[in-house]
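Onboarding guide, step 5: your first structure request.
Type a short instruction followed by the sequence, for example:

Predict the 3D structure of this protein.
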Amino acid sequence: MEQILPVYSAPWAPPLPVTTIIPPKETAVEVLNEFLADAEYTESTWFTDGSLLEGSAGGAAVQIVREKVVARILIPLGAGQVAEGEIEGILRATEHALITGAEHILIVSDSQAGLKAVLSTAACAGQSRAILYDKLVHAAMVTLPSLRIINLWTPAHIGTVGNEHADDAAKAATRHPAPPSTRISLTTCKRQIDLLILDRWKRLWAVATTGRGLRAIDNSPPSLILRSPYDSFAARADITLLSRLRTDFSALNAHRFRSRLALSPACDACGAPQETCSHYLLHCPA
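The system replies with structure tokens like these:
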């Protein structure tokens, strides 16, 4: 699981040679084309993306040189999040560009959150990847004193060749199993714990000896949505009525007959043998 550090770097630490550019959506393609036409970035332009399909996440980085795919990196993340795929794509693209010794690097992503998160070492989920990025760039600055990295945002699905290749690669990454060394973020860990608790709750609720009346109406476990009327400003009589319907203790004949307050549990309106909450709410034609 991801370890969160209270403080990673001192406020006076030198800034990274990284510029994040988020242009207006109307001019984003124009800005991208200007960078693609710049000879300094021709050999080191990477497009990145993240994806989530059928509960499996993935990230990708694709190097494009003169509109041709030169390198393709798939990053399976298993039960991770789309945001993790976006950040991993940026991280891996930067890493491979630095390995080639490139001093001018262009990273293109359609995730503004990912571009911001990769530079934030604040004490929150995703910090570990931001720290890796920080260490990676600082180490490269020793041998590449003129290093300059441009992290550029462009909108998704606007026909940009690089973005479409990155999107296809990220989707392909979701179909591969995540390696054991895959970093697990704090967000993913919490989500998996929530899913395990919910699954156990569903199994216990299905065999519970209480709540039968409510299960006859809705078989799913109670949620916070059902609590809201009790915290609202609804009339007390309405809240009482709702509570009785949920717990199967109501003025309907099935309950009144059990309490010896009625001669029969049958429905007076339609003649059904049991006037229960589920019958009254879901089945009674009257």
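Each response can be followed by summary notes, for example: Strands lie at 18-21, 45-53, 56-65, 68-78, 104-109, 148-153.
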